[in-house]
Amino acid sequence: MKVGEIAARIEKRIPLSWAEEWDNSGLSVGDPNREVNKIAVALDVSCETVGHAAAAGCQLLVTHHPAIFRPLNTVLYDVPAEKAVAAAIKHGLALYAAHTNWDVSPEGVNVCLAGALNLEDIMPLQKPTVRNGAWGLGAIGKLKSSLSVKECLELLIERWHLTDARAYGDLARKISKIALGGGACGDLWPLAKKVGADVFITSDVRYSERNDALSMDLNVINTDHGETERVWLMALESVVESVSGLEVETLEESGPRRIA
Predict the structure, then answer these.
(1) Domains of the chain and CATH, by start
(2) 173-222: per-residue pLDDT in tens?
(3) Most CB within 10 Å of its CB: which of 8, 36, 74, 75?
(4) Taking the model in full, what pTM does it have?
(5) Nearest 5°: phi and psi at 181?
(6) What is the distance between the alpha carbons of residues 167 and 223, in angstroms, rounded to a whole number?
(7) How far apart are CA 120 and CA 103, in angstroms?
């Protein structure tokens, strides 16, 4: 099966029309006519993931974050992102990204995160503006039994396999309704408050966003962006495998090293 055919099949399942206008999802590097025997899946395009994919005999690397967000004026080997693109070209490795379209997929980021917590009555935090099959952004759901904010943090660490997460607010407060946003969704806290969430979980929360949410009696849990998004990588692998019928390997990446 060729690169272009696999891309088209992925896009039937995760349409590019679901992506934000500023995004660069889809095929960004490679020959659409190259035959593919094996595919790799990873969170990011890096020299590490490109090297592992090439060494594993893959011809296509599918990631969440696009290799190229903006037009490149140069391709310099001392710039990490550009060096990774050059390495992919050298190895004949095509690069494909399912980014914001995967965020809003009914099989994607937020549905997987909510499912890992066994939330009930799951709904999108922000419904899609156009009814085109997208599920929506973020998620809201209920715990089967109430927990304290501190216990909720411990549950996240266990279920999402986190090493870096912090809770803010009244840690002893009992909560039952959780809102979450996979990735950097700190600006969605007003929606979480509006739908009656007791706590809002996301990554890369700004100082002002956190303080504003706390002032409105909304607890906040800030998680590591990359660690949180690795929760659903196996789901993306499953989609790619089912549409291509080929062997797909999820690559383990070196995460951030936190000093205790």
Answers:
(1) 3-101 (3.40.1390.30), 104-226 (3.40.1390.30)
(2) 999 999 999 999 999 999 999 999 999 999 999 999 999 999 999 999 99
(3) 36
(4) 0.93
(5) -140, 115
(6) 9
(7) 20
